[in-house]
Amino acid sequence: MKAVVIHAAHDLRVEDRPAELAGPGQVEVAIEAGGICGSDLHYYHHGGFGTVRVREPMILGHEVAGTIKALGEGVSGLAIGDRVAVSPSRPCNACDYCLRGEQNHCLNMRFYGSAMPMPHIQGAFRQRLVAEAWQCHKVADGLSANEAAFAEPFAVTLHAVNRAGALLGKRVLVTGSGPIGALAIIAARAHGAVEIVATDVMDAVLVKAREVGADRTINVATHGEQLDAYSANKGYFDVHFEASGNERAVRSGLEVLRPRGVLVQLGLGGDVSIPQNMVVAKEIEMRGTFRFHEEFALAVDLINRRQVDVKPLLSGIYGLDQALTAFETAGDRSRSMKVQLSF
Amino acid sequence: MKAVVIHAAHDLRVEDRPAELAGPGQVEVAIEAGGICGSDLHYYHHGGFGTVRVREPMILGHEVAGTIKALGEGVSGLAIGDRVAVSPSRPCNACDYCLRGEQNHCLNMRFYGSAMPMPHIQGAFRQRLVAEAWQCHKVADGLSANEAAFAEPFAVTLHAVNRAGALLGKRVLVTGSGPIGALAIIAARAHGAVEIVATDVMDAVLVKAREVGADRTINVATHGEQLDAYSANKGYFDVHFEASGNERAVRSGLEVLRPRGVLVQLGLGGDVSIPQNMVVAKEIEMRGTFRFHEEFALAVDLINRRQVDVKPLLSGIYGLDQALTAFETAGDRSRSMKVQLSF
Amino acid sequence: MKAVVIHAAHDLRVEDRPAELAGPGQVEVAIEAGGICGSDLHYYHHGGFGTVRVREPMILGHEVAGTIKALGEGVSGLAIGDRVAVSPSRPCNACDYCLRGEQNHCLNMRFYGSAMPMPHIQGAFRQRLVAEAWQCHKVADGLSANEAAFAEPFAVTLHAVNRAGALLGKRVLVTGSGPIGALAIIAARAHGAVEIVATDVMDAVLVKAREVGADRTINVATHGEQLDAYSANKGYFDVHFEASGNERAVRSGLEVLRPRGVLVQLGLGGDVSIPQNMVVAKEIEMRGTFRFHEEFALAVDLINRRQVDVKPLLSGIYGLDQALTAFETAGDRSRSMKVQLSF
Amino acid sequence: MKAVVIHAAHDLRVEDRPAELAGPGQVEVAIEAGGICGSDLHYYHHGGFGTVRVREPMILGHEVAGTIKALGEGVSGLAIGDRVAVSPSRPCNACDYCLRGEQNHCLNMRFYGSAMPMPHIQGAFRQRLVAEAWQCHKVADGLSANEAAFAEPFAVTLHAVNRAGALLGKRVLVTGSGPIGALAIIAARAHGAVEIVATDVMDAVLVKAREVGADRTINVATHGEQLDAYSANKGYFDVHFEASGNERAVRSGLEVLRPRGVLVQLGLGGDVSIPQNMVVAKEIEMRGTFRFHEEFALAVDLINRRQVDVKPLLSGIYGLDQALTAFETAGDRSRSMKVQLSF
Fold it and tell me: Are B171 and B193 in contact (CB under 8 A)?
């Protein structure tokens, strides 16, 4: 079985790994599609992010879908041949956070492809994956594995819109219109947003933002004044989904949010400087959003029912033999939205 | 009629001003007590804060109580001789924010002693104040005007605890234990907080914090490690009231808040740098809180019913002839908590 | 100018009324479409509902749209020839409820066609209506006045889904699939509901429910056991929109709601008997929902943007000379969903 | 070991039962105080309630406190001699409800002294109780076991006030001022309620209500018009805690709640008839509240810290040899508030 393994920054290898057998309650999945995520790219380009570093070889990947090839003992509700999206989130369901329904903060989380704990949690970019049955969500007939592999990043944005509270009739700003920003547009619309303005610094990205539902896009590198105009009368937007991790985007959002507006922070960066007086005087709420829990099932459900369409965001599919090219391409925002591997 | 007027930084004068007559729906109040607030001190020391500058002589003051001396036409429910706390907040009740019940964000707010608009809104440090009847809240028998003059800053902290949501059973951190931090301790307890830890950099201040209800105090200048210990298992506190405006206090709070914890920002500072990744990974909520609306009536009510005791925070009373001394003393945290003027 | 006037139960007349002139801030609208609502039918069939009785002749109607014919002094943002939906809701914007943003509970509400106060509030089933400019919301090009006249009942259901809180990913039951129930289906979907089951006692109505988005329909007169099956494991639905006013529908909803589920009561009936122990043991929330406020603008906006399609619910259009037939037909659920008058 | 066992209605026996040994993670507690609850009285008087019937002998009781006599293997944080309140709530922590943090709706709950499942869950009115260590909460020095045994019913009311949302500054009505109503008064005050009006049909009970914090009491059997007066201007109270289970109390609360007021239903009755139109027109929220989860620890904490005082509600203590007298007395509201057994 081949797997995509990171050894260090810029040292990505496709290696053979021993196959595993499905134990009780588990299934064996032939992975067919795997989306490359920003965190995968961080491992590839920088060997980690923040204080998290790759300290031993680790299989990357956590956005995967495939077909069930074998069932362990006692598995019901799934059958060989079923096509499934596999959730990378494996909370312990026993710690204090899990027993409050806050599984995304599990103290013992084993999320695929994470170098946070040691030993690292091996990821899902591999030809065969043995997973718990409850991680596997059936994909509707006629849907491609490629679409199904969007379930994970879409779940991230569904969690983000849940964090924002009810969006019905709300005016929404999305800053950073890469894969997560674009999926946030789809999620915000599904949650009832009535008007969505998206920004980025690249026109190619903004074309996609409009294609998936933004009512208006602004290239803030060239037309920042168009965004500034929304600051009249203390601000215009009810909710800001910040998906760039960029300090300038955070600060501009604070300017154009109306009093008691909510800034949901999706993008990861380092330290950012914020104008405390404005947060106070406008009573802004800044809320972090991290991964997801029940939203994975919802993501698959919405994709299955075709209530949303994620296909426009798939910009390239590469075979395992082109894994390096896939990672290089995925990192080039001018050409790529979501790049997937084919196994 | 004498009034306390700021002309420029360090140019504070007690001046004669013409008396006014109570019009329809108004009352004339003989002001007896006026608390000096941090914003008064900013005008005195710096001539303003941020972009707000004193551009014409302005009467300071917005924490006042006194006795009604005359009633305008059509006033009911108040009588000459009634002792009242006077709310400095005068929203227009007609703009979009007011008609959503968000009067503290009124586009046409006329808050006493504010240099934000031009002409400035004159304040309430004067011997006679003509106010709308609805600004005046009756004080219970046996309560001093000095206690009643705490209604305004206490209302600020009641609004802050409302912004935090239900506090019943919550663990609360208060950073910055000056007048606002100390009143936040009282407000948090009144709202059901079960455990309150307060910090400051001065021991004298922390003595008061314990006196008004903090279960534990930490001098973070000398014993910061005691606070750090609360960061185990992703954090301990449910809510953090940040009343110092200090970047270090903000950052330490993010460390010791549990996932989905809420940081309510009361203190005003300039730009502060925050660790975006931690806000995201712990799904922290940072919420600004600004002034108050219906909480003024609640503040008077709670003081009237003696459900709270603000007296320990009154550290000095000065006559008008000692106004300069009062302002100098109020600015010295080692000696003063709340300093009031007597008219 | 002709108007549709109720004098007493079954005494509906098309009468001449003097035309009015648009005063300052007002506009004159030539009404083109007017939807007959359940409350109009109550006045027609029973002369009122509950303790509300028709005590003087009253023009009926509050679901109207038309074209602006004249502008009063000082009106901006509207022009002669604009096609508009007219909100029937005229709160005072000065009472305690209005100043909390709860305008639908205004103590001085003047809602079109209401016999609650005396003199009654005259309605909008008339050829010319003088309204405040702020009541008028522009209709997008290409949209019919008939679609625009759905703004009012759609706003009622948008308010209902707002009352339910965020619906993203929620399982929804709608009981009573007449015009309000059907619009609730549309509104719940727009607010993110992932699965919608609708019930009624007439198959003809359920066909429409599926047409506007119900995933499944159940005729509870003939197949009640299909609904009962959802009570396993303490219940299935997160939210129940009760639009029938029928006691049996309320009670069946309590059975199939999951613990902490929310029952939003839209339908009006008299006294209903509920099983208190079940409300307690499952911690059900029953919430009334009444009219709307900011949701009127949202309704027009969603119709204008074609994010929703209300056309399937229009089952008949009658001229003024057929007003009696229109009212008789509107009351026959086997044949009619929404019946409108044409002026 | 002696235990208090119900065999059928009016067939209560003090019987010998074999002692148990503390297994791993468990402790053996010598029970010292056990409060008689309304559900115990239902088993005694009626052999059950609703469809729940005693079908085999069952030890009653779930409000208990005592002293640890032995520790099972692996228990830490507790020592022999510790005095503890024992939570009767034992959720499975594995079902869907538990993993959402809704343990009080656990599908496999084993709550002491419940005839709901078969075999019945044996209760805690026994001289020695073997419990899980996590059920045991240490009692502060100087506090009696009798006070500690209030933790359970107090937790019920703390959960009820949590269900109501933030109470700071709210006006509260409590109907039914027996043990649960009286504890709801204490809990509402601890949660910030500013004004509490309590009702009952017996003056003796209302004396206690005032003693524990009600601002005003109304005997609705003799002075119902005093309550009716609160219905002016659409109503007065923000929150109504209904602890009587009585239909008249529910209906009167709907009259005097303000629009969007919340009725929290604590009391258990059978079917009650409610005016649907009023629930709709005032947008009332009726919320059931059932048992508790994390509030048990909070109850012990608040009692330990002496932030609340439950002692005034203890009206009698009876030895095991007087168990029948205790049950008879507990059922007589004219003489008893909370009656406890001594073991």
Answer: yes
